[in-house]
Structures are given as structure tokens and as C-alpha cells.
Amino acid sequence: MTHDVIGSGAVLEEIPLEECVELLTRTPVGRVGGVAHGKPFVFPVNYLLDGDKVVFRTGPGTKLDGSGFGRVAFEIDGVDEETKTGWSVIVQGVAAEINEMLDQHSERLRQLDLSPWVAGEKTHWVAIDTESITGRRLTHR
User: Fold this and answer.
1) Which of 20, 57, 64, 66 has the smallest C-beta neighbourhood within 10 Å, fewest atoms?
2) CB-based contacts of 18: which residues, under 8 Å, 6+ apart?
3) What is the DSSP letter of 15?
4) Looking at the chain, which runs of residues are DSSP E strands?
């Protein structure tokens, strides 16, 4: 495990992959970021982790436009303001709408119990094909 000491005795340490995956399975909301129409975007989404895929639903618009086999980042985090500690996990990969995909895995992903928290037509299923998962934690000595 790598430790970097930063100001005031704070230590930034890597989170092991297994713990990153555990955090991804129990954190219901994250942020997806990418580029659409030449402009960066970051939006919160509720999601599920299925194996190595992050899956979310969305409507037409920027998230969908930026997910057409585009490279994206997906981030979750937790902060304790009182102790000034926290953690973050970043998933990097390629996102694709899976509505029309006929492979068994895409069909199974579309059967997941994933109800969008935001009202509106969220009929587009997007899966991020994970290339890397990394995490960091800020603690104090």
C-alpha cells in the first residue's frame, strides 16, 4: 500500500482493489464524467455494479451523447467533515448504450433492478466497460 504524507500529518493512501469494489457495491450514487460535443460533463447517477461493469439509466441528452463508446470516468466518494477524512474510488472505461445489444450479458444487465431516482423517461441503459478501478483514502497519523 502506498502512503503519501501531505500537510498537517494527513496521509493519502491507496485503497486495495477488493475494497474499491466493495465500496462500489454499497454506494448507491456516483458521478459519471466525460466529453460530449467537445465539452466536459459530470453528472450524478444512481447505478449498480455488475461484475466489472457500472450500469446506469438515463434519458436523451448529454450523458447519453457522451456515452456512445466514449471514454468516461465514474467516481464515488465519502467524506467525514468532522475528522477531515475521506475516500474516493475512480472507475475508468468505455461507456456504451446497451439497449440494442443482443449479447446475453447486455440482455441480463437490462434485467437488473435499477430504478432511476430522478423522474422522467430514463429508458436508455448505459454500461461502462471497466479498464481500471483505483481508490484513495485521506487519513491522519
Assistant:
1) 64
2) none
3) P
4) 3-6, 10-14, 29-36, 39-46, 48-50, 53-58, 70-80, 85-97, 124-140
| Residue 10 CB contacts under 8 Å (≥ 6 apart), including other chains | 84, 138, 139, 140, 141
Is the pLDDT score of 66 beyond 80?
no
Residue recorded with cell 478501478: 133
pLDDT per residue as tens digits for the range 82-95: 988 999 999 999 99
Element (H, E) at 21: helix 17-26
- SS3 state at 104: helix
How many angstroms separate the CA atoms of 126 and 37, rounded?
A: 18
| Residues composing the chain | 141
CA-to-CA distance for 96 and 67, rounded, in angstroms? 5
